[in-house]
Amino acid sequence: MKILLVLPSFKRFALHEKGMMPKTIREILAIVSSLSDELSNPTLKSVSTAKIREFLYQRKQDRMWSNKTFRNKRQYLKTFFDYCMREDFIKINPVEKIEKPKVPKRLPRCLNKQKLDSLLMHLDCYKWYNVLEEKRNKAIIRTFLFTGIRLNELLKLKTTSVNLAESEMIIFQGKGRKDRIVPIHPYLMPYLKSYHEMKRKKPTTYFFSSIRSNKPLTENNLYRIVKDLRKVIGFHFAPHMLRHTFGKLSIEANLNPFKLKEIMGHSDIQTTQIYISVSHQNIKESFQKLELI
User: Fold this and answer.
1) CB 100 within 8 A of CB 74
2) Nearest CA to 274 among 239, 234, 247?
């Protein structure tokens, strides 16, 4: 059977049975289609480990893939051929013997206290288009800093999911399609309330919406806010850096890592524990209390 003939059934399987994210499915279909084109539309049984290895090596060289990208593309191909094995189209997964390159463990980039103070000061002093935009943008940046939610989670946050009375917001279908409850910090609450009170005059489905319409805020809209702030503060920051900063500050405030794991929506506690590595303050304080002699 030709590879391209299997793609429609794999797509249905991935979407309806495996419940994969559409973006992941598109990535898998794209790399499998590229492999098929490279090998001139081969049959499944004619695709060997050597051919796939050469395909990946050449792509890595031509497109300057990082080791992480190489691992991801390898995994996409493996997922597709796992399905082919499941359907008895092939007996052995040809990707299995291709080694995964090591990915260097990088510490997440966070803002230090000086940059954090500068960001908040310029955020509060910036001349936005109108009062509603000012209140919304102040709430957005602080929501990243005081909840650690992801960019897509913030954009998809619905008005009904923000319970100010109970000081919590519900993140539906976050990364890994998991729901979770995120507490609202007392420092964040007045900014959310102030924005919500003004916004209630024209209610919207999504909590953070466009100023000029009822449409939800887009990723481009959000990065325009970030870009405007970058110009005046003089250093780089991004929404994910604010998420990492939240993780670091939470560890420094002695929040239990297992509780932080639930708030941030990590699937593995090892992901949460990386913030211990970037928290120099806790390390110094603990070390200074040691009685070495």
Assistant:
1) yes
2) 247
Q: What is the mean pLDDT of the segment spanning 132-146?
A: 95
Residues in the chain, how many? 293
Q: Cα dist. 276→83, 254, 271 in Å?
A: 39, 10, 10
Q: Roughly what angle, to the nearest 10 degrees, separates helices 239-252 and 131-147? A: 50
**Residue 114: what residue type?**
Q
Asked if residue 81 and residue 176 are part of one domain, the reply reads no
Beta-carbon contacts of 25 under 8 Å, excluding residues fewer than 6 positions away, are 11, 14, 15
Q: List CB contacts of 93: < 8 A, sequence separation 6 or more.
A: 78, 81, 82, 84, 85
What pLDDT digit, counting tens, does each position of 77-131 carry?
Answer: 999 999 999 999 999 999 999 999 888 777 888 998 899 999 999 999 999 989 9
Say whether 180 sits in a helix, a strand or coil. strand
**270-173-195-224 Cα dihedral, nearest 10 degrees:** 80
Asked if residue 279 belongs to a domain, the reply is yes
pTM for this entry: 0.74
Residues 167 and 280 in one domain: yes
